[in-house]
Design goal:
About 20% of the residues lie in helices and about 15% in strands. With about 850 residues, it is an alpha/beta fold. The strands form 13 sheets. Strands 28-30-29-35-27-33 form a six-stranded mixed sheet.
């Protein structure tokens, strides 16, 4: 989310699953779609069959995706930025990039201020005492004539972003890529040649990725590098192009769209910070200023922030939200620090909060639904010990998971003796996704209605009923007993036909939004009567006359009905857009930034794959990501960014405006580019006695985790019959390393990190090989993460994340699951 939003304006898959069939080149990195997204991967195969598309796979393992690739290149885990920057350098030095696209659809012409520099692994503005950057040092050069920023349409100015990018990546020669990544030079050049073949109007390529990119201490910048490459090649906004994030579970996209993390409200609106004491102060802080410095202006659609926010407050608090009380803004929770879940667990473990200088108490209770932090979190021992310090814990789940029984975790995980744990645990049996109706939002941003298959068994209840009962009970306590800021609970709107178990279709209508009073157009004509559903977010107002639970979903449930339940198969463009199949946010648009699919005059770069085109009076094709009647030359293609164009240079992220290769927190080698700054200098790390980090002398082997087709995260090992598809945990080991350690295929092996050790069956394989990194031999092993100590006794296994470290990306606080250091040895065989 963070990287794509910083580059393009929105944090989601730019195109869609079906659109992959329109690509000439598919670069699959940071994911293994043949195994982890097998239904979606069929569109890659379709592109190969119907367009003779080339599939390029870059992965540490020779996966099943690699097995059907046209080009496969091995890479050391965590070095993707070096590889991608090498391709960017290749494109710029050979001229294999779409120069006219870069000129009109990117910030390539923008000139950066003189404070910006990069030296010895650090960008300007670094504060070593605080361990972070002052991002004002990365600002564009002001233009006093326009009150905006200076640009050079020729893109020759030494400080324009295109030239600065060229200078930045110049160190990433094929030789340096081989030295860092372990990819043979000839293989790297073969990949670069195929990928950059799309840097023109006639061809187009897409990039697909998954958790293999996100779960690093530089995960956001890896994706930024891919997004930058796609802008250079002119592949964003075009059918068959884009940067396509392959989300994990069927509703991961929906979760992030709907306030999935602490720093965002629904629709990616910013959670208020404590210093933003009133609504106007908040809106001033979060509403971006339009930059009118390009040949055309930015739509800057986030200038509508007040409409989105006031409509959300009306959805939350209904009649109680009024102009004279700031629409209820004071009742919203405010952040006063980092409230991400790993920070919460650190507070729980240490017994106090980092906020207010560590003087505030830690949380005394936790509610967790559909989440298993003991298994999912890094450093499982710390997770277990943190939970043991709570007064109470509520777990809503289908199964008895490890988090619910943390108090009886096996001794090797280092938890307290159960007799010393005072935490009161409540397990609430919840129905599964097949036991309720509702909607899933898939990777392609399609909000798809689903129907209940079967009732939940026994006393199990749907999530909405469990949450409703808790809310209603807590609200009744506030009515009877009062409390601090009771309005925060008492004023929440809960006007469902069945408040105990709300109909999710009613909830979706609330999410879509409605007119509270008659809405009139500029001529005084009523366009929506009071109580009617809105057609889309273009009808939202900031005067309290509309409510909307999630502005980006507006249009999903209109007066015409539940658009998420549509299953129309018409395809008027012939490109697989299927506009009447469900509803795709935003505005049922299938390809975001589609104005960039056409040149300055509105002519499609490739008429055989026209995203949208200007017909003389309006844009036709896909739903235009653009005012539909705005003529070519009026506005830029990237309407959510104040620049109006895609960012080659992103001065908004916490670890630099350009992607830079840093070694993992547990570094396998010294960084060849800047040895004094080996790892990301602003990576988030914890410092409790449980947060220990290994070095390459003690732990010389690089390890990673991954997923299997047959296992649904941590659920399948609980499920009879299905758990037989993958009957046990295993450790994947290269043949030569196994021989060196005396480990035979099928025997047992032990893997040890600085945090602990686990054992499993050895899977000796040729899918992993020896790599020469900076002149040294580096070995790489891996194992799947799906097991735990709960479930069917015949199918239990170790917690993979017992070995991973609490090191996080500084933008998203995502843990570095994909690269950590271990020691490998033969383990004694189990006695039956």
């Amino acid at each position: 989310m963070a990287s794509l939003a910083a580059t393009f304006g929105r944090g989601a898959m730019t195109n869609g699953w079906v659109d992959i069939k329109n690509a000439d080149v598919i670069l699959a990195m940071g994911g293994n779609p043949a195994e982890n997204h097998p239904c979606g991967f069929k569109w890659t195969i379709e592109a190969k069959k119907t367009r003779n598309a080339k599939l390029v796979v870059v992965d540490p393992r020779f996966t099943r995706t690699a097995a059907v690739a046209d080009v496969y290149a091995p890479i050391r885990p965590g070095t993707d930025i070096a590889f991608l920057n090498g391709i960017i350098r290749y494109a710029l030095n050979t001229g294999r990039y779409h120069e006219e696209y870069v000129r009109i659809h990117t910030a390539g012409p923008y000139i950066v201020g003189e404070k910006y520099r990069f030296d010895e692994g650090l960008f300007s503005g670094f504060d070593p005492a605080k361990g972070d950057y002052d991002k004002s040092a990365w600002a564009y050069e002001p233009d006093p004539k326009t009150n905006g920023y200076q640009v050079d349409p020729t893109m020759k100015h030494p400080r324009c972003t295109l030239q600065l990018l060229k200078k930045h990546v110049d160190r990433y020669t094929p030789e340096m890529v081989e030295r860092i990544c372990g990819t043979p030079k000839a293989k790297f050049l073969e990949v670069a040649e195929v990928v950059t073949s799309t840097g023109n109007a006639e061809r187009v390529g897409t990039v697909t990725y998954a958790l293999g990119w996100t779960q690093h201490s530089v995960g956001v910048q890896i994706i930024r590098a891919a997004a930058t490459l796609q802008l250079l090649l002119g592949n964003v906004g075009r059918p068959g192009g884009g940067v396509n994030a392959l989300r994990g579970h069927s509703n991961i996209q929906g979760a992030t769209d709907t306030a999935g993390t602490f720093e965002i409200l629904t629709g990616y609106l910013a959670t208020p910070r404590s210093e933003l004491t009133d609504l106007q102060t908040y809106l001033k802080a979060v509403t971006p200023t339009t930059l009118n410095t390009q040949a055309w202006a930015s739509v800057n659609y986030y200038s509508n922030y007040p409409k989105f926010m006031v409509s959300l407050l009306k959805a939350l608090y209904g009649k109680a939200a009024a102009n004279d009380n700031d629409w209820g803004y004071q009742w919203l929770p405010k952040t006063d620090g980092n409230h991400s879940w790993l920070y919460m667990f650190d507070d729980m473990y240490r017994g106090n909060s980092r906020r207010a200088g560590g003087t505030e108490p830690a949380p005394e209770g936790l509610m967790t639904f559909g989440f298993n932090p003991v298994a999912v979190g890094p450093n499982s021992s710390k997770m277990i010990n943190a939970l043991s310090k709570l007064s109470w814990l509520v777990v809503g789940e289908n199964y008895q998971i490890e988090t619910a029984t943390f108090w009886k975790a096996p001794k090797e995980y280092g938890g307290p003796d159960p007799s010393r744990i005072q935490t009161e645990v409540f397990q609430l049996p919840c129905g599964g996704f097949a036991e309720t109706d509702g909607s899933f939002t898939n990777s392609a941003r399609q909000i798809q209605w689903k129907w209940k298959a079967i009732d939940a068994p026994g006393a199990a209840k749907t999530d909405q009923e469990v949450i409703s009962r808790i809310l209603l009970a807590v609200r009744e306590l506030y009515r009877k007993e009062g409390g601090a800021l009771p309005e925060q609970v008492l004023n929440v709107t809960w006007n469902y036909s069945n408040p105990i178990n709300p109909d999710l279709a009613e909830v979706l209508k609330e999410v879509n939004g409605k007119a509270i009073t008659d809405l009139k157009d500029k001529d005084g004509k009523v366009i929506r009567a009071a109580g009617q559903q809105l057609d889309g977010f273009g009808q939202l107002r900031d005067d309290g006359s509309t409510s909307c639970g999630n502005w980006i979903y507006s249009g999903v449930y209109t007066e015409a009905g539940n658009n998420a339940a549509r299953r129309g198969t018409g395809d008027p463009t012939g490109l697989g857009m299927y506009p009447d199949w469900t509803f795709s946010w935003p505005a049922n648009r299938r390809i975001m930034y589609n104005r960039a699919s056409a040149d300055a005059e509105g002519r499609p770069w490739d008429p055989t794959r026209a995203g949208i085109a200007w017909n003389g009076t309006k844009w036709v094709g896909d739903v235009p990501d653009f005012p539909p009647d705005s003529p070519p030359g009026q506005y830029g293609a990237f309407i959510m960014l104040p620049e109006g164009v895609g960012r080659l240079y992103a001065p908004v992220l916490n670890d630099g405006p350009f992607p830079e290769h840093y070694e993992a927190t547990e570094a396998a080698i010294e960084n060849p580019l800047h040895p004094k700054v080996t790892s990301n200098p602003v990576t988030m790390r914890f410092s409790s006695d449980k947060d220990v980090y290994g070095n390459r002398d003690q732990f010389p082997v690089v390890c990673t985790t991954y997923r299997l087709t047959e296992m649904y995260h941590y659920w399948t090992h609980h499920t009879g019959i299905l758990n037989q598809l993958q009957p046990g945990f295993f450790i994947e080991i290269p043949e030569e390393l196994a021989k060196e350690k005396g480990i035979a295929n099928g025997s047992r092996a032990r893997v040890t990190s600085a945090r602990g050790a686990i054992e499993g069956v050895a899977m000796v394989t040729r899918r992993l090989g020896k790599m020469t990194i900076d002149g040294k031999i580096i070995w790489h092993i891996g194992f799947p993460l799906h097991w735990g100590y709960e479930g069917d006794p015949k199918h239990v296994g170790p917690l993979a994340n017992f070995l991973t470290a609490s090191a996080m990306d500084p933008n998203t606080w995502t843990p570095e699951f994909k690269t950590f250091l271990v020691r490998l040895e033969k383990a004694p065989e189990k006695v039956s």
